Amino acid sequence: MKKKISKKNAVIIAGAVVAVTAVGGTAYAMSGPKLALNKEKVTVEYGTQYKPELKDIVKDYKDFDKKSLQLINKIPNEKDKTYPAVGKYTITVKYKKNSLKQSVIVKDTKAPEVAVPADVEVLQGTDLATFDFKSLMNVSDASETTIDVDTSKVDVNTPAQYDINVTVTDKHGNKTVKAGKVTVTAKPEISDDEQVVQETVKNSDGTTSVKNSVQKRSQSSGKKVVSNSSNVTRKSTTSSQSASGNRTSGNSNKTSGGNKTSGSSKGNSTSGSSKKNTDGTLKSENHKGSLTVEKDPNAYRKGDGFYSEGAEINGEDFDKLTGGDWKNWNY
User: Fold this and answer.
1) What confidence tens digit (pLDDT) does each residue in 163-180 have?
2) Pairing between strand 119-123 and 175-185?
3) Of the candidates 93, 97, 75, the residue with the CA atom closest to the CA atom of residue 85
4) What does DSSP assign to residue 63?
């Protein structure tokens, strides 16, 4: 048979339960929740911002008295960067008299991203050791990088297309290798007021190519010049004058005064006196730097008090015609 609990005993039991509960609650309130971390060790990729908050670090964050929960230190960013440098760091979390540490490791495990032009034109005869391939490569990486271009298969003296390899390595050893093309083009012939400039063009498939073009110096200001004495030829210039500058050749011509000029000249003889033919006309004379001149008697005319040739040629025109010292012409 079940014994009935008296009303008096029921009251005593209920009071005891309440007392035990109160004592336990007081003890929990005095000690609080146990401090624990969601992760004791965290790995962060270099180039990524890491700004942890207590709610992300502390386990059962909502159970804690927020005024008593503290994040003692944060990870500093690398100089002039918005993210921490590669290395090991420690974050300390404190709750009242208890504290825990989280280990943070920043690593660089990502290889550089590299875009190589579909084709790079190089002038025949160019020194590949000094050719600036590096500026033509589009490289993206959080770390410092070095670029190496293997042109061992390129014969820069023979126009054709060749294969090259581009290797980009970052500061922490991550590496990317890409293949590319180099086209050696024949030496262009340019004039003194021209030069060869380099330009990057976009292809229909979205890639880029590096092309060379001959442009006037006045129109290529600010562009990258790739021409030099070893990879271009200069257009030859011709002079309208003969090598001596003082001789004239050709068939016989008549001057406006009726004098005839022959096709040869003697540039080193000078006549200081006149010689006459038996009919009284002047003989042919040689003058310094001038053509041989024959006096045409039909070109002479008489007047009142004078006797002269039928026409005159001024000194400047005569000088241009003969290339000689017309002032020494004595007749």
Assistant:
1) 999 999 999 999 999 999
2) parallel
3) 75
4) G
